[in-house]
Amino acid sequence: MEKDLKLIVKEKYSLIAAQSKVQNVSSCCGSTSCCDDMDYTIFSDDYSGQAGYNPDADLGLGCGLPTQFANLKMGDHVLDLGSGAGNDCFVARALVGETGKVTGLDFTEAMLEKARKNNEKLGYSNIEFVKGDIENMPLADDSYDVVISNCVLNLVPDKEKAFAQIFRVLKSGGHFCISDVVLNGTLPENLQNAAEMYVGCVSGAIQKTDYLQIIAGQGFTEIAIRKEKQIVIPDEILANYLSSEELEDFRNSGTGIFSITVTATKF
After folding, report:
1. pTM confidence score
2. Measured between alpha carbons, how far is 226 from 134 in angstroms, rounded to an integer?
3. How do residues 20-32 score in pLDDT, each as one tens digit?
4. What integer pLDDT is reported at residue 239 of this predicted model?
5. How many CB atoms sit inside 10 A of residue 79's CB?
6. What torsion do the CA atoms of 195, 131, 263, 201 make, to the nearest 10 degrees?
7. How far is CA 238 from CA 30, 158, 189, 200, in A?
8. CATH code of the domain covering residue 49
9. Sheet holding 144-150, edge to edge
10. 7 vs 182: CA distance, rounded Å
11. Phi/psi of residue 222, each to 5°?
12. Quick one: CA dihedral 105, 110, 116, 118, positive or negative?
């Protein structure tokens, strides 16, 4: 089952890599069979004012601004998990400067190729993009000051493995800042399919409380949610799953899909 989920993610993001952010507004992966009428960019935050921002690397796939709360310093070595076309890597590089280093990890060849081409145009020598699986990173222990990730871990089948790997590759005293999608409360049964559609076409988002418990279970401390926002699914989509009365009840319940930006430290 995990292999099936990973294959779906690889195929989906290989298609997305061939598109621009504008194209992703109308279709998450260029195929209505994947995500129906979904606009995956409803998750994303505006990067345009960020130092180091490169529009060519922004495919609108994030659900936060992890670099905003990552406390990056000059000279830091940063790892970006699920780096895609390199958007967060280029922003991180602006913060760590010439003396820092940024590594992007992704397991989709098409995304890695796009990120490397973007970096070639910019001419940065302290950014590298590495192929690898977040559940089994081909990276050395105790190597990074900061780990960031943007709307990726919800797509990872085994989140305990993922956070154990993050703990392993962080230096003692290092920390992570991750933006991700979680659930809060029990969604109406008819909305389960909609949740799967909106969370990257994969049923990967888990309850926020469970997500935080997994982080703590891997040994992290100083766990804090820096930002939280509800993902507002358009009524015309919800109407495919809920009656008008059910839709109103859902809107008033506080239950739903949320993006959170969370930080934690390895001591």
Report:
1. 0.85
2. 23
3. 555 444 444 333 3
4. 86
5. 27
6. 0
7. 22, 29, 12, 17
8. 3.40.50.150
9. 127-131, 101-106, 77-81, 144-150, 170-184, 256-265, 221-230
10. 22
11. 55, 45
12. negative
> Kind and range of the H or E element at 5?
helix 2-17
Q: What is the pLDDT of residue 261?
A: 97
What are the structure tokens assigned to 185, written together?
């409360």
Distance separating alpha carbons of residues 75 and 203, to the nearest angstrom: 38
Closest CA to 225 of 174, 162, 178, 159: 178
* Domain limits for position 251: 2-265
* Count of structural domains within the chain: 1
How far, in Å, CA of 97 to CA of 43, rounded?
28
pLDDT at 180: 93
pLDDT tens for each residue of 112-144: 999 999 999 999 999 999 999 999 999 999 999
Neighbours of 226 (CB within 10 A): 17
Q: In 39-191, which ranges are continuous DSSP H helix?
A: 87-96, 109-122, 159-169
